[in-house]
Amino acid sequence: MKNPNPQRPNKSTLYLAMSGAGKSQALKQNPAIPAHGVLVLLFDPNHDHECYRVRGGVGDFAAIVAQALDVLERDGRGARLAWDVNPSAENFEQFCRVVNAVLDGGRETYVIAEELPV
């Protein structure tokens, strides 16, 4: 993956805690994640976040993400997209492949992994 803009500020945040410790609430209240004009990709099997949920295979998810990127580039309208799939380690790895394909440093992209399957 080539990052054409390595000068972007690092805005990475990690919330790590047991279930019920408040990670979802902390994320929802994080002012660093804009409400509009950015791409937010979620792995959210418990449906903790408001977003458009893509059902189907990883190809379906990748296609919707590509469409959202086109709209973002053309109109500046962002999207919050989750792949609504069984939370298996294999599915999480496929989600990460889609995320990796869009992280080019050219735009702000936010990734939320609400639950990590083991």
Order of helices and strands: HEEHEHE
What topology, given as strand order, has the largest sheet?
A: 2-3-1-4
What is the 3D form? globular
Poorly predicted runs are: none
Range of helix content: 25-40%
Q: Could you describe the largest sheet, including whether it forms a barrel?
A: 4 strands, parallel
User: Please, what is the average pLDDT?
Assistant: 86
Radius of gyration, CA atoms, in whole angstroms: 14 Å
Euclidean distance between termini CA atoms: 26 Å
Number of beta-strand segments: 4
Structural class: alpha/beta
Q: Report the total helices.
A: 3
Strand content: 15-25%
Describe the structure.
- The chain is an alpha/beta fold.
- About 30% of the residues lie in helices and about 15% in strands.
- It contains 3 helices and 4 strands, in the order αββαβαβ.
- It has helices at about 25-30, 60-75, 90-100, and strands spanning about 40-45, 50-55, 80-85, 110-115.
- It has a 4-stranded parallel beta sheet with strand order 2-3-1-4, covered by helices on one side.
- α2 (about 60-75) runs parallel beside α3 (about 90-100).
- It is globular and about 40 Å long.
- The two termini are about 25 Å apart.
- The model has no long low-confidence stretch (mean pLDDT about 85).
Keywords:
118 residues, alpha/beta, 3 helices, 4 strands
SSE blueprint and pairings:
Blueprint (H helix, E strand, L loop, with lengths): L22 H6 L10 E5 L8 E3 L3 H18 L3 E5 L5 H14 L6 E5 L5
Précis, in short:
With 118 residues, this protein is of the alpha/beta class. It has helices at residues 23-28, 58-75, 89-102, and strands at 39-43, 52-54, 79-83, 109-113.
